[in-house]
Fold this protein.
Amino acid sequence: MNQQASRAIVEALKKVTPIKLEGQYRAQVSLTPHVVKKISNYEGGYKPPSFLTPRCEFKCKPAKNSEAFENIKWTNIPVTTGIYRGGLNFPEFCCICMRPVEKYEVIQLGITKRGGTLQLPFTDREQAELISDAIFLDRFWYTIPFCNEDSLGSEGISFKETDTHFIIGFINREYGKLFGELNKMEGMWINKSTILARTLFKFRLVISIFAILMGALFTLVSFAETTTTAQQSDVSGPSLFWSLVLLLSGIGVFGWSLFFWIKHRKGENL
Ligand SMILES: [Zn+2]
């Protein structure tokens, strides 16, 4: 990390608010300052690209190369939470347009260390959220480089937090390639087909399974009716036909969704 990026982190660290918690959770904690943007908090300035925008995605392990600024020691619970300098290196260009870097913005990604709800009488929602983050999360801070015109609000970089890792996405494929080389990580280019495959997969799966089940049920019922009451076959005939149509379309859509998903779910190599 270069000097200017380190300075952005140091400045952010100077702005943390120390607070002493009593009661259910007891410790001295530092609350994340405003200058560090959270992805769950859009009003804080971060705006992700639309989910339909192609991007290169990287699955990042938070602990790798990270460095602890602060480890909070809880007096009554055997779990530590902390603030870390994230171990990812960002190539020294604007991550959206590749122009020279003019500024760094600090972002916080969190990994939940334990579940729970905060049962303290906080009236200030923002304060309560910050305290809750300090109690339940390991907080990783990253400095992201931008030109003068771009920022975390420019819809050019995406972040996703899970319980074990982060997914970082860049809409600039060239920047993504450099990021992958610098951090020795394999990224994938998520194109429109992949976005479509991922988005529609579950939806189509539910619809097609429903069609298969209903089709199978109707087919069985109509078939039973046809065989037991031969004289009513005129009535049961069309319903058996439509049941079979439903069943076969269900199987068709299911097969096609599965094929489309298997083919496109991973995206292209960078
Ligand atoms: Zn830029």
